[in-house]
């Protein structure tokens, strides 16, 4: 949890409410002994591990009968300033978005507390929509996964700025705390498109703004904006280097937003920067140099089949962007290149002689395989760039390499990533899709760890 701002722990001031702050054994002891608290505050401020300070409310609900009696408590962190950002105006201290609507944090907290009934109704409606949509799409296993993942996705977002200029920043929660990591926004972005595409736009805005303002020297797309809450970028260009990955991701996500929001002006606004990025993809995506992909924990590798596909689809997406913005000659050029590349990619990256045939981890390594999750973007954007035969081949292959809790990410390890399993599942036949979903849902149920839902786990042990 962030260590700046104010934490509020509140309830209604009503008849029968008592309170106390103080040492844990004292406060709890008072309630155990008398059923109430003495309404006194401990002003000896100290570290949490020193006499363990706690904050207690006790509510006397009176005689309880058949009618349910409820009481409402609110807890939350409120920050005046949330993020440092280097954008078009240089270094700025961005306020939390709520400061545009309330004069102080007590007013904001009071509104939040009083709005419970309304927000509970809205949340219940959203839950019901997710339940219906997920079950209709792929059944109970998919609902189990989607309902958990969507909550975590939104838990990672921080809304900042003003009512005139809103940004959303996202913090990695399990690695080194990077913010606005492009290849982490990428597996998040379907959830944003499902609920509100504008949130994807205001997540991409800081990345575009920083780079278009001349604060990043490289010709490829940056990996992240810094370590949260310092979205100060990399003026020396020394961020983690994933050139094909991030160029492809940025172009794909920008088109995905524009298609669903019908916002071609956003494409025109950022067309010059995306032209730089697609230039890099044309140079390096068909036969990628030794580099990292989003699965950076697995290390660098040259000629990655799945990474190459991300870049080629990025070129195909840029052809569609050029078409939508009236850049007809560019559209034809990028389309021709993408079509040529995808034909060559099939020769480089498919082990035709293996049974069953499949794409390789890297070109020519016919005894390797991996999740071809990047194919999903072709389907998402309706590019129809990848032949249907590739979809069918991969769908038939995954059941040949499944493990008790899923399909390994690739032949180097037995671990996998649940996000990539789901993107892969969405490109498969219903039977193969259901294999992915049932194994992932079962793993969620029986995994030996008690941590929150992770994207990275072992397909054999469940750890």
Mean model confidence by pLDDT? 96
**Poorly predicted spans:** none
Instruction: Enumerate the strands of the largest sheet in spatial order, edge to edge or round the barrel.
Output: 6-5-9
* Number of extended strands: 13
What does this structure look like?
Helix content is 46%, strand content 14%. The chain has 463 residues and is α+β, with helices and mostly antiparallel strands. A 3-stranded mixed β-sheet has the order 6-5-9. Strands 1-4 form a two-stranded antiparallel sheet. It has a two-stranded antiparallel sheet with strand order 2-3. Strand 10 and strand 11 form a beta hairpin. It is globular, with a radius of gyration of 25 Å.
SSE inventory with pairings:
Elements (H helix, E strand, L loop, with lengths): L5 E6 L5 E7 H11 L18 E7 L13 E6 L2 E7 L2 E6 L9 H10 L1 H23 L1 H16 L1 E6 L2 E6 L11 H14 L1 H16 L17 E2 L11 H19 L2 H6 L1 H14 L20 H20 L3 H22 E2 L6 E2 L16 H5 L7 H11 L16 E3 H8 L4 H17 L9 E3 L5
Parallel strand pairs: 5-9
Antiparallel strand pairs: 1-4, 2-3, 5-6, 7-8, 10-11, 12-13
Helix pairs in contact: 3-4, 4-15, 5-6, 5-7, 6-7, 7-9, 7-10, 9-10, 10-11, 14-15
Short description:
With 463 residues, this protein is an alpha+beta fold. It has helices at residues 24-34, 105-114, 116-138, 140-155, 182-195, 197-212, 243-261, 264-269, 271-284, 305-324, 328-349, 376-380, 388-398, 418-425, 430-446; strands at residues 6-11, 17-23, 53-59, 73-78, 81-87, 90-95, 157-162, 165-170, 230-231, 350-351, 358-359, 415-417, 456-458. It folds into three domains: 6-78, no CATH class; 79-114 and 156-239, no CATH class; 241-398, no CATH class.
